[in-house]
Amino acid sequence: MKKMNFASITAGLDTLKDVMQQNAEIAQDKLIDVSFIDFAPQNTFAADDTDESIRELADSIELLGLLEPLVVVRDNDRYTLIAGERRYRAITQCLHWSTVPCRVFDGEALSRNRKQLMLHEANGQRDLSAGRQLQIFEEYNALLEEMMQNGGYTGTKLGLIAKKMQISDRQVRKYKRIAEQLTQQEKEMLAAGELTVNEASRLAVARSKKAEPSSGFGEQPEAQPEPSSGFGEQ
Question: Which residue has the higher pLDDT, 26 or 58?
């Protein structure tokens, strides 16, 4: 097992720590016409929202009010939702508000990667299925890989992903293996619940072993996993 680089993990967390707070100086609160607000082009977190959950949220907002404003990014005269898609649906579909309180960030001051990170930060507390978590892992992995290539992030990936997704290093390694070994169709089956995460993991392990070159000394017994460190594999 590789030695954990705690300094690198800490540096990585500092790089992405409190993304919303880092951008607070370019945000303002205002009332926005709902017709000027668009959904984020990629929001896996909202994929499992149902009419029932939206109706329940609408009832709560009607009773208690909107406790948190929506978070949007302004691009010219339009606004893209970063946090609050289910709230927006409850407000427009059930309560029929014409305007909604929003925290507005200036799109010109934010890179595409940072906008997507803000969306992940804002939705990180959602209770997601294993299939959805795999999708979130792949999004985080691709996002951080791109940021590493253009110099926007210099830490390590898997440890940070485990921390941001609030899962164990063992689980994040399982998602990594599944992401690398399963076909897109199989991933869609996992997201739809037609394939369990354990079944997907066994399939991925079998394929990864099959792909390993033979040492010429016969098959060796599988090593027992070391105790989890609480951080992701580097």
Answer: 58
Q: Could you give the maximum distance between any two Cα atoms of the chain, in Å?
A: 72
End-to-end CA distance of the chain: 10
Alpha helices in the chain (DSSP H): 6-16, 19-22, 51-64, 85-89, 112-123, 130-149, 158-165, 169-181, 184-191, 197-211
Take residue 129 and report the two structure tokens written for it: 């299925």
Dist CA 67 CA 191 (whole Å): 31
Evaluate if pTM is beyond 0.90. Answer: no
Contact 10, 231 (CB under 8 A): no
Q: Collapsing DSSP states into helix, strand and coil, what is residue 31?
A: strand
Among 69, 48, 193, CA closest to 128? 48
Query: Please, which pLDDT band fits residue 84 given cuts at 50, 70 and 90?
Result: confident
Name the 3-class secondary structure at 152: coil
Q: How far apart are CA 168 and CA 229, in angstroms?
A: 9
Strands 27-33 and 70-75: unpaired
**pLDDT average, residue stretch 48-76:** 88
Closest CA to 66 of 92, 40, 36: 92
Using an 8 Å Cβ cutoff, are 233 and 158 in contact? yes
- Which of 32, 128, 42, 29 shows the shortest CA–CA distance to 82? 42
